Amino acid sequence: MITIPYLTAVSTYFSYGLLFAFGQLRDYSRLLFDWWRTNNLQGYAPICLAHEDFYIRRLYHRIQDCFGRPISSAPDAWVDVVERVSNDNNKTLKRTTKTSRCLNLGSYNYLGFGSFDEYCTPRVIESLKKFSASTCSSRVDAGTTSVHAELEECVAKYVGQPAAIVCGMGYATNSAIIPVLIGKGGLIISDSLNHTSIVNGARGSGATIRVFQHNTPSHLEKVLKEQIAEGQPRTHRPWKKIIVVVEGIYSMEGEICHLPEIVSICKKYKAYVYLDEAHSIGAIGKTGRGVCELLGVDTADIDIMMGTFTKSFGSCGGYIAGSKDLIQYLKHHCPAHLYATSISTPSAQQIISAIQVILGEDGSNRGAQKLARIRENSNFFRAELQKMGFEVLGDNDSPVMPIMLYNPAKIPAFSRECLRENLAVVVVGFPATPLLLARARICISASHSREDLIKALQVISKAGDLTGIKYFPAAPKKQDEEKNGIKLD
Amino acid sequence: MYVRALPTTDVNRNTEWFTYPGVWTTYILILFFSWLLVLSVFHCSPGIAWTIVHLAHFTVTYHSFHWKKGTPFGDDQGIYNRLTWWEQIDNGKQLTRNRKFLTVVPVVLYLIASHTTDYQHPMLFLNTLAVFVMVVAKFPHMHKVRIFGINGDQ
């Protein structure tokens, strides 16, 4: 639930209307100019349709320097951001040799495995020397090493399911697995704010897709009832299979899924639950086992658990965990397993070592410390931001916190102001978010120290004052006299 | 002062912005301010200004709602490439609140324009033609209809 000041909503629509109008004007003048000038590409079809490209050319390119910034060091708590210059008004950007050391609030480095780690990195380097960087083969040919087998067992045990299958790319895990699980005659009910990989996988499967209102179990029940009653479109036969797809933490909202209610509704109507834990595995829960542990849901109730290793484990790739039959079926039918190159062996070793650190199997309690630190950091940061008057989304304990910006001009203003003060933030606008709801998304890491966070808060407060995004009244400063009074007793 | 924005179930990013609060007010305010702009630029009578606003509104909205097809970004892989914006909103469902509002606005503009010009001739003819085309284009029966193949696909 997002609360917008009415004037901000009206001014945002007006700004986008203006940008759109100017974009169209420029397109028309470009059309006239090109019609007058002869074209040496007679008879060739255009590479991309002019109208499809409109948003990228006329809106995105104007503020291109706020996105896709290259970095030249590991994405730790502090990162080297390469400076870029543009000679033609942001149409093209050239890298310079200068870098600036910035506080990194944009990487999904939840547990701090994004840079050198004293337990993981030596093991990864050893595995690199022993197995080399790539297996150069798919899993079924010659791409399964002992490390891969160990990884799948390790992941299955960690997540709490009987078996798991690992894929080399997180996005491909969703888009290659969903078409294997369901086809024409099936129904996929997905949350309205699901990630593009799930949307692509669902569209590629050929099943009918229905959407339910974000994180609203009552609307899910309504949609399920309607669809089961109506059956397949046109023939009205019963559905072959119904899969409900939800995510653990939604990456653009920072909200945690209402899993217990959704699981009970799915059990009632006999639908399968597919849980995408890309952002929640390793980041929430007492031992980092994700949203099931946090909300107390039995993992046996979830039919398919999916996750990625890019966020909390500092590696690459994704996994699917489920029953032994399911994983056996996937190993025989999933194209990502049969034809795609397997995950590189040092990356697999990084995941195994990271899981060992998290569970404390490396002999120290660094894992528990990291989990406690990320929880403390997230709650502290969110509370402070809300006290300053920012509109911050997301539930408590979630390390993802979007700060609402709304107006399109505030997107580059906030981003550039923060970069000037050596703070690297990620800003997101349309079409990744709804038109009205542009935001700056902060990702807290366990490797951020308290001083880092305080500095970040100061910079964000200053940038927030300059851009006018403190939409809520700031909380009054606490009076310390009462505390001293109690101490004197 | 504050409004609550519930997330919608519309997956089409080209049309879901129309379901959030504040759109109707912005639309009406833009029309009003463009009337003031026309009055100050052309120094004409209020009636002529409303006629100009009405005809400009007709041109802009006919082009963007009923002529341009598809979406301005490529992420949706072209599944809406045969549908105009009018056919895309509310997932193709007819007679929703948004559609009713968008049908009423040109009619109200027509009434204001013809009233303030005292129903005099060249303006009345042009205004009537514009509103006729606009309202017919928005009928539920015209969903996905291409008359004589105009604006049809190749």
From TrEMBL, chain A:
Pfam families xref list: Aminotran_1_2
Compartment(s): Endoplasmic reticulum membrane
Keywords, comma-separated and alphabetical: Lipid metabolism, Pyridoxal phosphate, Sphingolipid metabolism, Transferase
Catalytic class of the enzyme: transferase
UniProt-listed Enzyme Commission number(s): 2.3.1.50
Ranges for domain Aminotransferase class I/classII large: 102-460
Highest taxon above the source species: Eukaryota
Region forming the signal peptide: none
CDD domains recorded: KBL_like
Keyword Aminoacyl-tRNA synthetase: no
Cofactor requirement: pyridoxal 5'-phosphate
Record carries keyword Lyase: no
Pathway named in the protein's UniProt entry: Sphingolipid metabolism; Lipid metabolism; sphingolipid metabolism
Entry similarity comment: Belongs to the class-II pyridoxal-phosphate-dependent aminotransferase family.
Protein name: serine C-palmitoyltransferase
Chain's gene name: LOC104711374
From TrEMBL, chain B:
Claim: Lyase is one of the keywords in the record: no
GO biological process, one term: response to oxidative stress
InterPro entries in alphabetical order: ORMDL
Keyword check for Transmembrane helix: yes
Pfam family, one: ORMDL
Topology within the bilayer: Multi-pass membrane protein
Domain of life: Eukaryota
Keywords: Membrane, Transmembrane, Transmembrane helix
PANTHER family: ORMDL PROTEINS
Protein name per its UniProtKB record: ORMDL family protein
